[in-house]
Amino acid sequence: MTRPPTAAQRRVIEAAEPETGRITGTGPQLARLVALRLAFRHPRPPHDHFLTPAGHRIREAAGAAPAPEPHPEPGPGPSAPGGVFTARLGGEPDAVATPARAREVRTAWQGLLEIRRMTHPDGATDRPCAWERGRLAHSAALALEAAGCVPATGTTPGYRVTDTPQPEAVAVRHPEPAALAACAEALRRAGWQVSEHAEARGGRCLLASPRRA
After folding, report:
1. Where does the record place the region Disordered (predicted)?
2. How high is the pLDDT of residue 176?
3. Among candidates 17, 93, 28, 27, which has minimal Cα distance to 55?
4. Is the pLDDT of residue 66 over 80?
5. How would you label 33-51 residue by residue, b for 16+ Cβ within 10 Å and e otherwise?
6. What does the alpha-carbon distance between residue 45 and residue 67 come to, in Å, rounded to a whole number?
7. pTM (two decimals)
8. pLDDT-based confidence at 171, cuts 50/70/90?
9. Cα torsion 83, 171, 101, 26: sign
C-alpha cells in the first residue's frame, strides 16, 4: 500500500457489512480500495466488493465493532491479499489464534475453493487443483487450519507440515495420536489422500498428497 486511504475511503471501509465484509461505494472508491489491496472484486456476478484481511484490520482499528465469524464469501485466493495471509506450517513463534486470524483463514479457504471451481473442468471443489499442487505444504496447512486443527508454536504442541522427497506428498506430524488422526480426517475431507506411517525414530506421521479424481 503506497498511501493510507482517504477519509471517504475509510467511510466505505467502516460501513462494510459486519458478517461478510461487503462494501459499497462509487466506482473510483472501490477501484482505489482494490488497488490498495484493502478490498477485492468478487469474480462472479454481481461482482460485489469485499474487504480483504488488511481492510478488516483498518475497519477494526477505526473503532468499528469486530466482525463475527464471516459468511463464506469467496476471497481472492490463499495468498492474494497483498501477501498478507500465510498458511501456518507449524513452528511459527507468533502463531496466535485470534478472531482476525480466524477470519483470514476462512477468507483464504473460501478463495481456494473458488480457485478449484474455476480451474477444474467440471467445476469441482472437493479435490485439490493445480494451484495447490504447486504449493503442497502451504495448501495442506491451509486445509488443516481451516478445519480447526492447531499449528505448533514454540511452546504449544500442534501440527507441523513439511515437504518430502516424494513427488506431490507432504508429511504432517503431531505428537498427540488423537490430534494426528483429526489432521488425517481434515485432509481427507479437503480432498487429500492420506496414509499413516511409523517413523524410524519413533512416533508416527501422515503422508498426504492431492487427490486427482
Report:
1. 1-27, 62-102
2. 95
3. 17
4. no
5. bbebbbbbebeeeeebbbb
6. 24
7. 0.64
8. very high
9. positive
